[in-house]
């Protein structure tokens, strides 16, 4: 399982994680793992009243992501079948730290650590980031009803939280390379050349193998 490619794509809401994950899955014939979003019964209420519905929302995401990772480990990674996911379960701590009260967060972290203790670690993380204006434009374009009430200030804070969290991840997990992609300058959905550029960089990582310890790159 350690030599089986397991890639996760991360970044704030609306940055294009699922679109890029789908493209990678199609190009390399990887299994695509998509996070459960709209199925969360608390999410719409969360965007309307974050303080009231944050704990329920975060717990739903944590339990479902745990179950998804458990399934792909058994059905794919342990059978040497590559996987690309449009999230890393580490994101739960990013969101929870922003939205939960201290007492709730402390309890949440304990549950998170128990559930993720034996979860698979990705061999590569692709981190997408973009300006607030780009995120808002893409969120509006996909037209999800549950995202209609997202507060731009919350989205901006989330982007800043991601920057901090990804820097901490790189510091604490030097064996897991991180590719940073700027969503303001890369339009991999509408520009085929941008997507080819990303694939070329992924090819380099695959060729160097699971044991390489590469420097984080910025496109």
Outline the structure in words.
This protein has a single domain, classed as P-loop containing nucleotide triphosphate hydrolases (Rossmann fold, 3-Layer(aba) Sandwich), CATH 3.40.50. It is 53% helix and 11% strand. The protein has 8 helices and 6 strands; from the N terminus they run βαβααβααβααβαβ. The protein has helices at 17-28, 43-48, 50-75, 91-99, 102-116, 132-142, 152-172, 192-208; strands at 6-10, 31-33, 83-85, 124-129, 178-182, 217-218. Strands 2-3-1-4-5-6 form a 6-stranded parallel β-sheet, sandwiched between helices. Helix 3 runs antiparallel to helix 4, helix 4 runs antiparallel to helix 5 and helix 4 crosses helix 7 (152-172). The protein is globular, with a radius of gyration of 17 Å. The two termini are 29 Å apart. Mean pLDDT is 89; it is low at 210-219.
Keywords, separated by commas or semicolons:
219 residues; alpha/beta; Rossmann fold; 6-stranded parallel β-sheet; 8 helices; globular; disordered C terminus
Task: Describe the structure concisely for a colleague.
This protein has 219 residues and is an alpha/beta fold. The chain contains eight helices and six strands; from the N terminus they run βαβααβααβααβαβ.
CATH class, anyone? Alpha Beta
Sheet bearing the most strands, described?
A: 6 strands, parallel
Distance from first to last alpha carbon: 29 Å
Structural class of the helix and strand makeup?
alpha/beta
Q: What is Rg?
A: 17 Å
- Helix run count: 8
Strand content: 5-15%
Strand order of the largest sheet: 2-3-1-4-5-6
How many runs of DSSP E, i.e. beta strands? Answer: 6
**CATH H level: which superfamily?**
P-loop containing nucleotide triphosphate hydrolases
The geometry reads as globular
